[in-house]
Specification:
This protein is of the alpha/beta class and about 325 residues long. It folds into 2 domains: about 140 residues, NAD(P)-binding Rossmann-like Domain (Rossmann fold, 3-Layer(aba) Sandwich), CATH 3.40.50; about 150 residues, Dihydrodipicolinate Reductase, domain 2, CATH 3.30.360.10. The chain has 10 helices and 14 strands. The N and C termini lie far apart (about 45 Å). The model has no long low-confidence stretch (mean pLDDT about 95). This is Gfo/Idh/MocA family protein.
Length: about 325
């Protein structure tokens, strides 16, 4: 059975990373797109050979030819549109961060259960060969001792998709700053590799005062067997100080990789093994392939269920002092 998709929020992120994949995966078709600017929605539809376009999200959700929804708006409207789609009985693939807070995520989960409709979060790195290779390599370095994350970027990092309006540093739209845009992927991978943390603590601040959002966040996660992950995200350093590095240290060696690169390394017995990868043109396509199978009931495995998205939101809330860890 072919799933006909509707995209709510066909902005810059959907141009290459995700949007075209819905027409390239077997059993999938991009049927409609929505953007508040009608002219831009129409332009997107014409360029990507999409039959329909809307300027109203509810109209797209209510289109009888649309069978599943991809919510790709800024985070402030994720909860509203996801719940509306679930209520309409249409499964949802929602961008990260899943919602503005853990509470919002929990309301989305409640709606998914209430309306018996599937919900998946776009932590698509779980489906990329590079990060699954990292997961394999972790098994080769013995008992894990600790994890170190250093993600240091200038305020205008090239790792963030450019937009006409920099909504990512407006907490009322994004939930925070660049930390809220980029760290969900990093944190989710830690959950993917090590499971649920047993302790969470952190601190954040707005050092450079370039926007209303915090630009430095530190956090500590403690996993089973006293595996400690210490992380630092800073978005106010010079270009020369940029760094994207995760090191996982075990009793027999360590695994290193950048979150936004295309290689990983394992170092054991003084020898380094390097594995290089070419990511798909549409980087979300491997995840979308898994979602199509899940939404079509070809598998019972949800590639990233909403509970994982809520856990990531809870961690970010604690790191940024929105709530107290319990």
């Amino acid at each position: 059975m072919s799933i006909k998709w509707g995209i709510i929020g066909c902005g810059d992120v959907t141009e290459i990373k995700s949007g075209p994949a819905f027409n390239k995966v077997e059993g999938s078709k991009l049927q409609a797109v929505m953007r508040r600017d009608t002219a831009k929605a129409e332009d997107y539809a014409k360029r990507h050979n999409v039959p329909k376009f809307y300027s109203d999200a509810i109209e797209l959700i209510e289109d009888p030819e649309v069978g599943a929804i991809y919510v790709a708006t800024p985070p402030a409207s994720h909860e509203q549109y996801t719940i509306a789609a679930l209520k309409a009985g249409k499964p949802v693939y929602v961008e990260k961060p899943m919602a503005m807070s853990e509470e919002g995520c929990l309301r989305m989960i409640e709606a998914s259960q209430k309306y018996s409709t599937k919900l998946t979060v776009a932590h698509y790195r779980r489906a990329l060969p590079m990060f699954n290779k990292v997961k394999e390599l972790i098994k080769e370095i013995g008992d894990i001792r600790f994890v170190s994350i250093q993600f240091l970027q200038p305020s205008k990092t090239e790792l963030v998709a450019s937009t006409e309006v920099n909504w990512r540093t407006n907490p009322e739209i994004s939930g925070g700053g660049l930390f809220h845009d980029m760290a969900p992927h990093h944190i989710d991978l830690m959950l993917y590799f090590f499971g649920d943390p047993v302790k969470i603590s952190g601190y954040s601040a707005n050092q450079a005062k370039l926007s209303g959002a915090d630009d430095i966040v530190s956090g500590e996660l403690v996993f089973a067997n006293d595996v400690i992950c210490k992380a630092l995200w800073c978005f106010n350093v010079s270009n020369e100080e940029s760094k994207d590095l995760c090191e996982i240290v075990g009793a027999k060696g360590k695994v290193c990789f950048p979150f936004h690169g295309n290689f990983c390394q394992i170092i054991t017995n003084g020898k380094t093994g390097t594995f290089n990868f070419i990511h798909p043109q549409h980087i979300q396509q491997p995840m979308i392939e898994q979602i199509i199978r899940y939404f079509n009931n070809d598998t019972d495995i949800n590639p990233c269920d909403a509970g994982e998205g809520a856990k990531v939101a809870r961690i970010m809330d604690i790191f940024t002092a929105r709530r107290t860890a319990k």
